[in-house]
């Protein structure tokens, strides 16, 4: 509490609503009192302390930058998922061990662009980087290294092989025979790939009463399953009687020969 009050005095804040920035780094802190009264807080430095839990962040929904590196955190479950506005999150040099559990906590951060998790036990996982890239698609800078398009494609192929094949099929006009319901290729994702669930009102050929898909992936799968059919027909019009010839009866009617070619 003293550290917080000291910082408020240094910055000259008179009202809690005025506190947008709080710097508590490098003070050897093991715990921090609730920061709920600073409901407009956007930038928070707590790095280089000895923090073990993050319960003091329970009501700070406006945070956009959070610096938690160089602490003693072992688990962040239930402490960060409500911080949907975060853009920068530094968690390196802690003791986070469970990769899946940690990433799950961050999945709701749709604006997260910069993330550091290196120098944690979880970073030793052989598929660590690709798993984070696949699970948190908004991240542009991971562990001080830019996420490349090739890494995104590799992550998609590793953790969602079915969607990867479908995307390639749509992008390059190839027909990929990938049976729906096959098992995804990663050892981390052992559940069968999801089957397409088409909402009522979106049956084939029904263009007047369509219901949007809840999951965009379903729309992609449907597009792959119902490719447009292109048909070309050719007729010898010299053998077809004109209206005048039909009225005068000058030209005998002949069976029409039509050549039709279909492309999928």
Describe the structure.
- The protein is α/β, with parallel strands linked by helices and about 260 residues long.
- The protein contains seven helices and nine strands, in the order H-E-E-E-E-H-E-H-E-E-H-H-H-E-H-E.
- The chain has helices spanning about 1-10, 100-105, 130-135, 150-160, 160-170, 215-225, 245-250, and strands at about 20-25, 45, 65, 90, 115, 140, 145, 230-235, 260-264.
- The protein has a seven-stranded mixed sheet with strand order 1-2-3-4-5-6-7. Strands 8-9 form a two-stranded antiparallel ribbon.
- Strand 5 (about 115), helix 3 and strand 6 form a beta-alpha-beta unit.
- Helix 3 packs across helix 4, helix 4 packs across helix 5 and helix 5 (about 160-170) packs across helix 6.
- It is elongated and about 110 Å long.
The largest sheet is: 7 strands, mixed
Question: Shape, please?
Answer: elongated
Oligomer: single chain
**What percent of residues adopt helix (DSSP H or I)?**
10-25%
* Topology, number of strands: 9
Radius of gyration: 30 Å
- Give the N-terminus to C-terminus distance in angstroms: 69 Å
Give, in spatial order, the strands making up the sheet with the most strands. 1-2-3-4-5-6-7
Which H/E pattern describes the elements? HEEEEHEHEEHHHEHE
Strand content: 5-15%
Low-confidence stretches: 171-176, 178-185, 189-196, 201-211
Class of secondary structure makeup: alpha/beta
Query: Total helix count?
Result: 7
Calculate the mean pLDDT score and round it: 78
